[in-house]
Amino acid sequence: MNNLIIGNTSQLSHYFPNDYEKISSRDINFKKLCSKKYDKVFLLFAEQRTFLNESDEFFIKTNFDYTLEVINKFKDISNKVVIYSTSELWNKYDGCVSLNDMYNYNYSPYIKSKEILCNHINNNRDIYHNVVIIYPFNFNSIHRKEGFLFGKIFNSILNNKKISIGDINFERDLTHPKNIVDVSLKADKDCIVGSGELINVQKFIEDIFTKLNKNIIDYIEYDEANNLKIKRGGYYSCDKTINYDDLINLTIKDIYEY
Questions:
Q1: d(CA 134, CA 97)
Q2: Does the pTM exceed 0.85?
Q3: Residue 172's pLDDT is what?
């Protein structure tokens, strides 16, 4: 039975098995695709829109209206439909978070649109009994767009150019898209996916440069005007799905393979 990836430009799409069918989320040919049966369908689109300065309506149109339309097209012809929300729904917490914790977050239109979708799915489980929601923590790879911090870092390394960034001496639960995919392939129920620990972002980036035998000061300068403005608590996943060394090694492997 076929497995389908919708969103072939997503970071995650690069880490699924090569024999999975991958299509763009734009102009989906529902008539053709919905004539088939699927084992699993993964909805990956809209993952990298988080930083856009747009209205609630903009995000709801994609992250709720269109996503729900796609779910409704495939849920009855698939054994499982996997969708992706965000761990940012708990970003006001300190400490580990689990699905037992109520959403509590610093508002943004992107996060709000994800909340609306998740609430709709969870309040209608009789209809969406085969839909699995993955709540990923921050995952980064060489496929990250440059509008994000790690997109800038990887661009600097790959193109051998110096960049200016804000203060990165803060802690986040970081993971890698391969880890998200590995968990997604086996997931039979909703889950939060992260490293299960707070990682100092500056140390992590410095360790990447050290592993590559590069001097970080030749690539990065710091500018307070570029400091990240999004407020978050010190929250992380209660479940540990990857360790620090594996996270570093996957990142290094990405860079060498690219």
A1: 14
A2: yes
A3: 95
Helix/strand/coil (H, E, C) string of the chain? CEEEEECCCCCHHHHCCCCCEEECCCCCCHHHHCCCCEEEEEECCCCCCCCCCCCHHHHHHHHHHHHHHHHHHHCCCEEEEEEECCHHHHCCCCEEECCCCCCCCCCCHHHHHHHHHHHHHHHCCCCCCCEEEEEECEECCCCCCCCCHHHHHHHHHHHCCCEEECCCCCEECEECHHHHHHHHHHCCCCEEEECCCCEEHHHHHHHHHHHCCCCHHHCEEECHHHCCCCCCCCEEECCECCCHHHHHHHHHHHHHHC
CB 79 within 8 A of CB 40: yes
C-alpha span between 116 and 65 (Å, rounded): 10
* Per-residue model confidence as pLDDT tens digits over 86-102: 999 999 999 999 999 99
CB atoms within 10 A of CB 186: 7
All domains of the chain in start order, with CATH: 2-139+173-193 (3.40.50.720), 149-171+197-236+244-257 (3.90.25.10)
